[in-house]
Amino acid sequence: MSDALIWRGYTQAALDIQYNSRGTVPDVSVYLADYAARTSQAKAQLRCLENLHYGDGANELLDIYPATQPSAPVMVYLHGGDWRALSKEDSGFAAPAFVAKGAMFVVLDFTLVPHTTLPAMGAQVLRALLWLQTNVAAHGGDPQRIHIAGHSSGANLVGQLLMNAPAGLIKSAVFISGLGDLEPVRLSFRNEKLNLSADLAAQVSLLKHQPGRVCPLLVAVGQNETEDYRRQSRDVADHWRAQGNDCEMFELPGRHHFDAVLEWASPQSTLFKASCGLMGL
Q: What letter does residue 188 receive in the DSSP assignment?
């Protein structure tokens, strides 16, 4: 039974290894602590409008790191954490780089599993984007230039937004260390916490939908991530191009699942420069 193939030639044990991103590093807490420390430093360094309500829910809060000039493009970052962890307090680490280039940087809180479902989480972050479209001009952002980025489970939320946002709302997107198909997650040990059905997994999987022409996309994955994470990243890039969109794929040398996002936050990196290029910076 243990040799039965569960997904794309993987046994259950092999599939669980492929989708255990925490198992790819000796101690994930080092990287989570780094996100939080860099965010604290960003708040000390930059002006930050904290805990603005984008909705009535207790978790419907966002932080805005304003640009230094008016009518700036807006970068909205969606954190990872297996849909179950982290917050905006861990998510401002890229703010210094983007603000220095002339962008507004925004990070969100949203309800996490087990207190919500993945589609409801996607709907919640869409409400945040719609709130920004209406309100961001008052804080110096250009509502006609809203861009999004997400890491890990946050990349899944990017995918949901690309499927469901009103036409023209999102000008570009960055999909970092993410998954376009959650069916193997459903089949893995991770579903003990996520409780995904096959229908629910398909509902939130970008590779199962054809949204058509939406916006340019950057897809990035660490060179040291698992084989199936890298394959899924390539599949997302191919799928996005097949919808008629521009897409650039980055396999980041020496990076793994938890530090690939720091490449995006580095002003010297090609990925950061490409992200700024899509923002007109």
A: S
